[in-house]
Amino acid sequence: MSDTHAQSVAFVRRSEIPPAPPPARETGAVKWVRENLFSGAFNSIMTIVGLLIVFYLLSGLIPWILNGTWEGSDIRDCREILGNSGGGCFAVLAERWPQLLFGFQYPDYLRWRPTLAFVLLAVALPPALFAMYLPRWTLAATALYPFAAYWLIWGGTILAPVVAALGILAGYLVFKAIEKRGFVTALAAGAATAFIVWWIGGLIVGEFPRMLSIEPVPSRQMGGFMLNLILGVICVSLSIPLGIVLALGRQSRLPIVKGFCVVFIEFVRGVPLITLLFVANVVLAYFLPPDANFDLIIRVIIMITMFASAYIAEVIRGGLAALPKGQYEAADSLGLDYPQAMRLIILPQALKISIPGIVNVAVGLFKDTTLVSVISMFDLVGMIRGPILSSTDWVGVYWELWAFACLLFFVVCYGISQYSQWLERQLTTDHR
Amino acid sequence: MTTMSDPPRADGFRVSKLINDTRYRSYTFQFIALVLLILGFGWLINNAINNPVLREAGIDFTFLQAPAGYDINQQPISYDSQDTHLRATIIGAINTLIVAFLACVTATILGVIAGVLRLSNNWIIKKLMAVYVELFRNIPVLIWIIIIFTVAANTFPPISEFRIPRDGSDPERGLLFGMFAATNQGVFIPRLDFAEQGWIIAAVALASVAGVFCWRAFARKELYEKGRELPVFWPSLLILILPVVIVNFALGSPVGIENPEMGRFRFEGGFLLRPSLISLWFALSVYTGAFIAENVRAGILAVSKGQTEAAAALGLRPGRIMSLVVLPQALRVIIPPLISQYLNITKNTSLAIAVGYMDLTGTLGGITLNQTGRALECILLLMLFYLTFSLAISAIMNIYNRSVALKER
């Protein structure tokens, strides 16, 4: 076949022409720039404006960071060292970082304890965050952590956290043992056991308040970023179970339960957090027994938890509503009762849908912990506005301090939101 | 639970049914819940009754009629320190609404721009907007308010630099366009000056707005009934501006613009935006704008690409595709979170107390509370105001939601 035309055709190409490289403007960086930065007149103008903005920001920021000084004992030293270089006076951070992180009242020589608690967090968090990749027993570290952290930060006898942990453990064991006889019965029995253990334990702790004791630090001496973290962590972890209960209550067919939940949620969502903090500060004491010794931090925790749980309840309600009705009906048709249906069928799916919303609330709540500075608690913002900026040494060093505060919050909040996006991808089980 | 072959036996009521029979169990639970609720509230109220401080003071709202005795630096309605606490409270509420309204408007503009730009195909703009959104979303709004307050109160030049020196030479700084002056006391801006016949202008302006709506309705009717397409944008603009300008000239300019002018020591005329208002307004706008940007982005992404392609296949122009196909569907997704962002702004204006802006929290929850010591009453009123406002907005939102919701089956 191949030589059929050998006489009639002067030249026949025997091989394919190698593909020519695409034109220079259609490949690589040039193409990318043409497509993404200069695809039209308008786009080009936008690019130039954007570059100018970036240039302007960086031209202020880079000298500020690079020329900054970390040495000096007050603002006058800083001015002397810096001259006109436009650098930042980071000496304030070098000198005051313990105050920014722990507040100005936490005893100097005990700072290793909260530091250790936060270092331990690096051990305690991964088992919970990456539960699907780590063996189950590592969760024990997470479970033990709150008690260890409490002991390290607040000090006092080790018996108190041990008793608290034992109570929860005993309650859980009792619950597991009689779970088959009905969820409600088991829950009531578990709670009763826990209370009995706590009561007996309370007596024992009262007998031996100095046993294996480290120096106690009262709550009002907490401050700085530590206070934000404590409030954030405690309130979020308390408000999630409360929020689930409220969301289920709002969905329930029992009018009294439902009515209470609706009123509670709408009330709390309708008022600003700051009014609730005012309540914690001045009004709540009226409604608690006069001899009960609730200090400000506990009252604030109560109010913030209420606040967050209402928001989380709404998020979870959204998750519950998003489930197809067939899921509820399927659970009914299997003969599951309400607690079983909720625990086995509904909540696992609803909570999965609600993860992004819950994380949003958690991040928002963590940011809102700065509001406690308004009721004269010395969290990070309170520390900067109060003791540090009003001290004669550092009056006028705004940018460095606020940049530090921004950095701390940004790292934590951005980290949490990135984690939640990752978790969402991990939990996606539908095949779309 | 019951089947056709197994009808419930009518064997009357037994006590055990209260726990074991699902028909009666709900009553048991409700009864328990009610008892717990009553006990809980009873305990709280009992504590309050037995509280020595509260028992002595009682609950009494008459303090609202007493003279307030403090000054308020931003007075939308006339007020002096001899007026009552009630009037101070009302001024605080108006100030709250002013800053909330301003922040809602600018946050929406910022948010829509940022949200659309985040979807642009310009890489650098996209990244800049992502940085903006992440930076502002992840840092507490309180910190932003304080930072902007610090900037406004410390880095702007003092008024003395605007003063005309004795020798009559030019001052160190002049006014921007002869209208604006940013000083560390606040930003001076021009003010609309209403003379006697000013109300005529206002009436004409209102009539023009009504005229615009009429023109749009007329244009739509023409289009639907006769297929004739009338221009809308330019005529609307003309209707809006022309009558006001003509009438204003005809009446000899009763409405003018009063620029701030440097007097001997301070600015005279114009309008002063205090650093507290600026910081609150600006910080709430950029902070909430970042959230709105995410809502807008999500809304636009929620409209499936097939819709755009189908509209293009029908021969619609890109502008029409946006206004007739994409936006109506995107708005359905955007509006509910947008309104809850407005509610958030309103609630966040209570942070005014951190920079001394005299909103409701600053007057009623701040100075009035501290002066009278009536904490319970003040905080109750404070909560009631925010609650009423929020519930009213949510009610409107629910009505709106129902009207735009997809009508299914």
From TrEMBL, chain A:
One of its GO terms (cellular component) is ATP-binding cassette (ABC) transporter complex. One of its GO terms (molecular function) is transmembrane transporter activity. GO terms for biological process: amino acid transport. It holds the Pfam family BPD_transp_1. Residues 225-420 form the ABC transmembrane type-1 domain. The keyword Transport applies. It is found in: Cell inner membrane; Cell membrane. The keyword Nucleotide-binding does not apply. Keywords: Cell membrane, Membrane, Transmembrane, Transmembrane helix, Transport. InterPro entries: AA_ABC_transptr_permease_3TM, ArtM/GltK/GlnP/TcyL/YhdX-like, MetI-like, MetI-like_sf. It is a multi-pass membrane protein. The chain crosses the membrane at residues 41-66, 115-135, 147-175, 182-205, 225-248, 260-284, 296-316, 353-378, 398-417. It comes from the Bacteria. Belongs to the binding-protein-dependent transport system permease family. HisMQ subfamily. This is Inner membrane amino-acid ABC transporter permease protein YhdY.
Automatic annotation (TrEMBL), chain B:
GO terms for biological process: amino acid transport. GO terms for molecular function: transmembrane transporter activity. The keyword Membrane applies. SUPFAM superfamilies: MetI-like. PROSITE patterns: ABC_TM1 (PS50928). InterPro entries: AA_ABC_transptr_permease_3TM, ArtM/GltK/GlnP/TcyL/YhdX-like, MetI-like, MetI-like_sf. It is found in: Cell inner membrane; Cell membrane. GO terms for cellular component: ATP-binding cassette (ABC) transporter complex. The chain crosses the membrane at residues 27-45, 90-117, 138-156, 198-218, 230-251, 271-293, 379-400. Keywords: Amino-acid transport, Cell membrane, Membrane, Transmembrane, Transmembrane helix, Transport. Residues 93-397 form the ABC transmembrane type-1 domain. It holds the Pfam family BPD_transp_1. It is a multi-pass membrane protein. PANTHER family: AMINO-ACID ABC TRANSPORTER PERMEASE PROTEIN YHDX-RELATED (PTHR30614:SF37), MEMBRANE COMPONENT OF AMINO ACID ABC TRANSPORTER (PTHR30614). Belongs to the binding-protein-dependent transport system permease family. HisMQ subfamily. This is Putative glutamine ABC transporter permease protein GlnM. It comes from Jannaschia seosinensis. The lineage of its organism: Bacteria, Pseudomonadati, Pseudomonadota, Alphaproteobacteria, Rhodobacterales.
